Amino acid sequence: MDKRCHCVCELKNLIKAESTGSRDKFFYPGGGSYKGFWLNSQHHGYGTKTSKNNLNYSGQWSNGKRQGLGSMTKQMQNGETRVIYTGYWENDQKCGSGKQFYRGGVYYGSWKNNRRHGMGLIFYESGDFYLGEWKVDVYHGLGALFYNNGNRFEGYFARGYKNGEGTFYHMKTGQVQKGVWESDVCKSCVVQDEFRNQVHSSTPYPIPPLCIPYPDIFVYDLFRKYLKNVNKPGKCFEELASLKFVHKMRRYAKFEAKNTSNSKVPLDNLTYICTCKKPEKFVILQELLASVNTRHVGDYTVCERCSECDTLTEECTDEEVGVLIDILGTF
Predict the structure, then answer these.
(1) d(C-alpha 45, C-alpha 26), whole Å
(2) Which SMART domains match (predicted)?
(3) 55 near 70, Cβ under 8 Å?
(4) CA-based, 20 to 30 A from 86: which of 59, 141, 234, 287?
(5) Residue 30 has pLDDT above 50, yes or no
(6) Whole-angstrom Cα distance, residue 152 to residue 40?
(7) Across 321-327, average pLDDT
(8) Cα separation of 120 and 110, whole Å?
């Protein structure tokens, strides 16, 4: 072999081999196979891929990822082929409208990132079904939950539970329950009898009617205190205008600041509590005033002591006692 032939063979070996077009079947070393179209050695177009776990996908591909309409099935040990999902895919994940089969039900609706998201309908094997909004694979938003016994709930859901305002229709008892729910528990509600005539049999727990035994006597007792004003003459326009002005001024007066006194002796109360730390003793203000009037004021200071423990509670000069006497004399 000459040098020229050796160089040509070396250049040909550097070119990467890529598959483009259709292949009958390609077997993977780790298990599984693919049959369909290729583009630059990647699944592209329509194709069928089978994994080593007997999962089979038939549908559209784009650059080696499931993209578009496709169906996922599984081959069971008894030879039965069970459909798992049929719908749209995006970037190798369920996205868009699709139909998913579960062990105990089937779901029709929207998907996003392999999770139920958006509007959807799910049927359960027990006969219950839910129609409404989904978010991150659970009930979330406005929806309606129908039960196998005929009851249904219409309202708001959050994180898979009844949350917020809603209405529960008790079709067996003919009652409508309107209220607020939190984590599937009704916090407050009003129950109405709406479908009593449409049920097969009446409920064993009916709502008792609200009635007054003697309504005439009840109304008379309620308005008896106003009977004395029946024969009074009506007020003229000027009097009504004056009363309206007075009520308006009283309403504004409620916002005015209250005048508070810093004195230890409250002037609006005839008694006050002894400030000594010993057991409290009530002192009558008039008796205190009488005792002060009997004392000589001007030559010495007045000292008040607790009658229980003889503790000095207050010491006043003659000027302070005189002011106190003048203030108390005005009441």
Answers:
(1) 15
(2) MORN
(3) no
(4) 141
(5) yes
(6) 55
(7) 57
(8) 6
**Can you give the pLDDT at residue 29?**
86
Best CA proximity match to 137, nearest among 105, 111, 156:
111
- Indicate the pTM of the whole model: 0.53
State the pLDDT confidence band at 248, using cuts at 50, 70 and 90.
confident
Q: Are the C-beta atoms of residues 265 and 272 closer than 8 Å to each other?
A: yes
* Beta carbons within 8 Å of 256's beta carbon, 6+ residues apart: none
Q: Which residue has the tokens 């978010």?
A: 135
The residues, ordered by sequence, that sit 6+ positions from 280 with a Cβ below 8 Å of its Cβ are 273, 274
Which one-letter amino acid corresponds to residue 129? Answer: F
Phi, psi for residue 265 in degrees, rounded to 5: -100, 110
Task: Report which residue type is found at 25.
Answer: K
Examine the pLDDT at 139 and tell me if it is beyond 90. yes
Distance CA 54, CA 76 (A): 8
Residue with tokens 């694979």: 137
**Coil, strand or helix at 226:** helix
pLDDT digits (tens, 9 = 90+) for 274-294: 555 444 444 444 454 455 444
Beta strands in 214-276 (DSSP E): 271-273
Rg (CA), the chain: 46
